[in-house]
Structure formats: C-alpha cells, structure tokens
Design a protein that fits this description.
Elements lengths: L1 H23 L19 E3 L3 E2 L36 H5 L17 E11 L1 H12 L2 E3 L1 E3 L2 E2 L1 E5 L6 E5 L1 E2 L1 E3 L8 E3 L2 E10 L7 E11 L28 E13 L17 H41 L10 H10 L16 H26 L10 H12 L1 H14 L5 H7 L3 H19 L8 H28 L25 H28 L7 H28 L5 H10 L1 H16 L5 H38 L6
Parallel strand pairs: 12-14
Antiparallel strand pairs: 1-5, 2-4, 3-14, 4-9, 5-6, 7-8, 10-11, 12-13
C-alpha cells in the first residue's frame, strides 16, 4: 500500500519542482538563428511608439503611435518606409514593424553619422513634448531583439536590458522645467562568434543610449559632452531645427545565441513573487483539502444513513414520534431528489455559456502548456496571440458538442437555436466590444488600431472555419445520448423554504468567487503589468501552477456551496453554481479598477474607456470560464451523490 501511494506523490513533487526550470527554459529559440559575415548589412526595424511608466512610475496613456507619424517627423528611409510582414497575433497586440534609414554593418563602427534634419512647428513641438512627459518610448528591433536600455535592479543588484528607450527626458531638478528631445542614439550591438568562426557572427544584444544635443550648424560632434540639450519650442510661430544622428559600436560577447533573451527576461523582486505564490498555494491547498475531507466525511455518513433507513420497514414499527423525528431530521438533501435534476430556467442560454466555457477551458490549458514547453518564444513576436486564435477556432468543435449535449440533457427543444447561438453569441459579444473599442483607437490615430483588412480576416476565420466546426460538434452532440439523471423528476415542483443569509444568491456568490481569485491574484498583477506597461511576460511555469490551483479551488468551493444549498432544500443549483464560480471575474474587474486608480493616471476619456472596456472584456471571458468549471464540477457531484442512494 505504501508504494502505491508514494509513487504518485513522488511524481507530483517532481513535477512541481520542475516547474520553475520549465518556466526559465520557456524562451528556447522559436526561430532559426541568422548568421552574418563581417560587413554584412544587419537590418534595424522600427516598431510602434508605446507608453511606459513615466518618471512618477505611473502610466499616463494606453495609446500607441506609428513610428512614422507625421507629427513625430522622424527620419525615413529612401523611397519611404515599408511594412514588415507580421503574424496575426502581432498585429492584434499593436505591433507595426517598418523599415528604417539606419545602416548597420556587422563589426563596422560608425560615429556621429547624420540621418536627416527636421523642423518642428508649434503643434508638432507640443505633441512631441506631451508624449515625452507621458513617458513614451521608442521600440527598435535588430535581428528580432528589442533595442533596450541597460538598467540596474537596486534590490537584487543585477543588471538587465529593458526593452525600449525614452523618446526624451524631463528635467530632474525642475519638474515644471523644459522637456529634452533625444535626437542622438548610441547603438551598442553585442555579437557572438559561433565556435570562434569569423564568418558566423550572431547578434546577441542591443543597447541604445539616447541623448539630446542641440547641434550648431554643421558641427556634428556628438561626443562633446558640453553640447546643450535641445528643447522643442512651443511658442506661437516658432520653429525648432533638429538634426538626427547616430553612432554604432560593435562589441563581442560570450553570450550564446540560444540564451540571448536571458538579459531581457527580468523578474523584479523575485523573493516576494516566490513567497506570495507559495503562500497562496499553501493556503489554497490547505483550504481545498479541508473542504474536501469535511464534505466527503459528511456525505459518507449521509449516504450510509439514508440507505440504512430505506431498509427499515416503517409499517412494522409502532410509528413512534422519536423515529419519525429522526427520519425527518436526517432527510437533508435527499428530500429534493425529485427536483434536483429539474430543467433550470433559460436552459438555452446556460448551455451556450457552458459550451463556450468548455472551449475556453481547453484553449487556455493548451496555450499555457505550449508556452510552458517553449513553443511560444518571444523572438517570434505575436506567437501567443496567434496560437490562441488558432486554438480557439479549432476547438469550436468542442464548444458545439458540449453545448448540444448539455442542452439535450436538460430537455431542451430549440435545438436549431442552440446550434446557431453557440458559435455566434459569445464570439459576437467579444467581437462587437473589440470593434467598438477599436473605433476609439481609429479616432485617435493610434497604431494599436487593428486595420480593417485584419478585421475581415478575423471574420473570415470565424465564419469559414469556426462556425462550421461548431455546427459539426453540435450535430454530434445532439446525436449522442443525453446524460441521464440517476433519479426521476417529480411532476410538481417542491416548494423551497427561506434560505439563511449566507446561502442567498449575492452573499454566496461573493463568498465563493473570492477564493479562485485569491489563487491567481499574484500572477494577475504580473500579467497586468505586462499588458499595460509593455513588458515581456514569460513566467508560464507560475501561470500553469496558478491555473491548476484556480481550477481546484473553483471546483471544490462551488461543490461545497451546492451541498449546503441542497441541504437547505434548494434545488436551483445549476445557475447558482455557474454564477457563484463566475463571480471571481467580478473580483478581477474590481482589481482592474483598483489598478487603474493606483498605477495609472489616464487623463483623457478615450484612454479610460479603452482600459475599462478591455478589462471588462477579459473579465467577461473569465466569467464564462470559471462559471463553466463551477457548473461541471457541481453537475458531477450531484450525479455522484444521488446515484449512491436508494430511491423508491
């Protein structure tokens, strides 16, 4: 017996111990390396200009802009810039990669090379100065690596590369002073010799050190530290002449190509992250084990007592009040056996939610596993978004099958409406909300606005691939046999007695929803920082662990609520289990609002609407996901307990 119980435990411990290593190994290269020879041209691409934390550590905007927006007046290559092909996920995440006029040749240093000169009028100067004050950063790509700044983590004492670099700076001595526009770039590129061969040189790091220099005439001495910084004048009728220059320095590095992303993937305050995660895991596991042991102990006694009472022939007894009181006292959830499988209100809507929830559940699991195993490399930009769209599309078959099977088991008769609504209702809500928010980006001329052609591609994928797969899944679901309940349903519904306070809908939802939220709270903070502060998220090992904890917590706590609900003779468990588990999405949305007040300072209406809109959209999808987990775990539980007792 000991060996049987020890082996799974040892396997589980080994898997948990391997999670951090898997998380650290996720960034194994997902694209083939490019080798250069000395003098070969190394392309430098420019990406959209995105906001990051300003000097006050707050995010002041969520709008990104094209690098070649006419108001920035950055230098363009001869013949004009051209777009670089991108994946669907990269476009949806706001990348707009284009060619640039920078000339980089492997191992060839350049000093104070002139790009072009531009004149900034009052409006352009005001626009650029405002973006500098909001903390906007330039994003360049060299051989797939983001150009960043070399920073020091004061807490751990380690150095790392932060993707992107500042468009300009604000005077540190005078907060109300002028803003300095960076017009010179020192580009430091690290290269590695493969096996010491001169003809196999690979880029393993890119650092840009921007500077503001007000050149006088043709004197382009960028190494002169006495050159004053340049300030774009906003006075009426004034123009500011700006000359853009750059220098290139190549340095050999021992860093191998396969580990070049190590310097970009930095965890701020890792000890607190580990402590919070372990603390959450211990609390959740302890709570789940306690709930499960108490629940099954009570159920075991209930089932044994009910079956023992069924064997007693009450007609042979004298009918004493003590026995009758005992029977009545012991008749908790068994009293509602004739109503517990009664069709809930709005079964069509519930089945559509559950079908899409099952689809999201499988998609999320597969996506995290792919990322955990290293298939979604940050060097392959947009791979995360692309794989999520592909998986959600292909898994429409599962959504249609689950929705149809559940609807048939609930005795639904509007099967045509079920087949049509399953692939149209939830995706339609998501697409409509996304399109509405995209209008704000279009109106503000933001680079994050998804092009109309990309919208047509998404609609094409939806109607050509997703909907037919959902239809085929629904067809198989309706052909399959319904999930038969273990007990018969009475014709006349039983009256439900008044519930205690904690079993009423709102209190029970608040109690159940907070526990799954607590399981993912720590990781949610890092995910939100990655989304809104343009940071690279790579801790998929932690995310995998949090996802598993969330599933266990969501199922256990919802089952416990359903047990208490049935003991209180309330058989309306279907919607209650779905809404109670889905309430964790309400906590996520509330957390997003707190994050808005504490970490963001969005002055305009558009930015606030975009933030709240995207947060509400993600919370809605999480509501469908966790609600489905709660329903199916409760359904399994109810089927299990009522099939374990004898009903005449």
């Amino acid at each position: 017996m000991k060996s049987k119980t020890f082996a799974p435990s040892w396997a589980l411990c080994s898997a948990l111990l391997a999670l951090p290593q898997l998380a650290a190994a996720f960034y194994l290269p997902g694209v083939a390396p490019t080798s250069y020879k000395q003098g070969d041209k190394v392309p430098l691409y420019v990406n959209s200009i995105k906001p990051v934390a300003a000097q006050d550590a707050l995010l002041h905007s969520v709008m990104s802009y094209d690098y070649y927006n006419e108001r920035f007046q950055f230098c363009q290559p001869e013949g004009g810039p051209s777009y670089v092909s991108e994946s669907l996920g990269s476009i949806l995440f706001g990348d707009r990669i284009m060619t640039s006029p920078f000339e980089l040749n492997m191992m060839k240093n350049e000093t104070c090379k002139k790009l072009c000169s531009s004149k900034y009028d009052t409006q352009s100067a005001h626009f650029v100065n405002k973006r500098i004050m909001q903390g906007y950063a330039l994003n360049w790509l060299v051989d797939g690596l983001p150009a960043g700044q070399h920073l020091l983590d004061d807490l751990t004492g380690t150095t790392f590369y932060s993707p992107g670099f500042a468009m300009g700076t604000i005077s540190t001595t005078d907060p109300d002073g002028p803003t300095f526009f960076n017009n010179h770039y020192d580009i430091v590129i690290e290269y590695h010799k493969v096996n010491g061969k001169e003809d196999q040189l690979r880029v393993v790091g890119v650092i840009v050190q921007p500077a503001s220099k007000a050149y006088k005439g043709d004197n382009l001495d960028c190494n002169d530290n006495g050159t004053p910084p340049i300030v774009l004048q906003e006075n009426e009728g004034s123009e500011t002449q700006v000359t853009f220059t750059y220098s290139v320095y190549w340095t050999e590095s021992p860093t191998a190509w396969a580990t070049r992303w190590d310097k970009y993937l930095h965890v701020f305050d890792p000890k607190i992250h580990w402590f919070s995660l372990v603390n959450s895991a211990v609390v959740v596991i302890f709570l789940t084990v306690t709930v499960t042991s108490v629940l099954f102990r009570a159920l075991k006694k209930d089932i044994a007592r009910y079956n023992r009472l069924d064997q007693i022939n009450l007609e042979d007894l004298s009918g004493t009040s003590a026995l009758e009181d005992g029977v009545q006292e012991d008749s908790g959830w068994k009293l509602v056996h004739g109503d517990v499988f009664r069709t809930p209100s709005h079964p069509l809507l519930l089945s559509v939610f559950l079908g899409n929830g099952a689809q999201l559940f499988v998609m999320t699991g597969f996506t995290i596993c792919f990322a955990l195993l290293g298939f979604l490399s940050p060097s392959n930009r947009g791979s995360l978004g692309t794989i999520m769209i592909i998986l959600y599309t292909l898994l429409s078959f599962i959504g249609g099958y689950v929705s149809a099977r559940v609807y048939k088991s609930m005795g639904g008769e509007k099967w045509k409406l079920n087949i049509g609504l399953t692939p149209l209702l939830i995706p339609g809500i998501v697409f409509s909300t996304f399109f509405f928010l995209n209008l704000f980006l279009w109106a503000n001329g933001a680079a994050g606005a998804v092009p109309f052609t990309t919208m047509l591609v998404i609609i094409g994928i939806w109607f050509v691939i997703s909907i037919p797969l959902s239809f085929s899944g629904s067809w198989l679901g309706f052909r399959a046999s319904a999930v038969e309940p273990p007990v018969r349903t009475n014709q006349i519904p039983r009256q439900i007695p008044p519930a205690t306070t904690y079993l009423k809908p709102i209190p029970s939802m608040l109690l159940v929803g907070i526990l799954p939220f607590g399981a993912i709270f720590v990781e949610l903070y890092f995910i939100m920082s990655s989304i809104w502060f343009s940071k690279i998220y790579y801790m998929f090992g932690f995310l995998f662990l949090c996802y598993g904890l969330m599933i266990i917590t969501c199922a256990a706590v919802t089952v416990l609520m359903v047990y208490f609900l049935l003991c209180a003779e309330n058989y309306h468990w279907q919607w209650r289990s779905f809404l109670a588990a889905g309430m964790s999405a309400g906590y996520i949305f509330a957390n997003a609002l707190i994050y808005l007040l504490s970490k963001l300072s969005l002055g305009g209406l558009s930015g606030t609407v975009l933030y709240i809109g995207y947060s509400a959209l993600l919370s809605f999808l999480f509501f469908i996901l966790t609600g489905s987990i709660g329903f199916f775990s409760s359904w399994w539980f109810v089927q299990k307990i009522y099939s374990s007792i004898k009903i005449d």
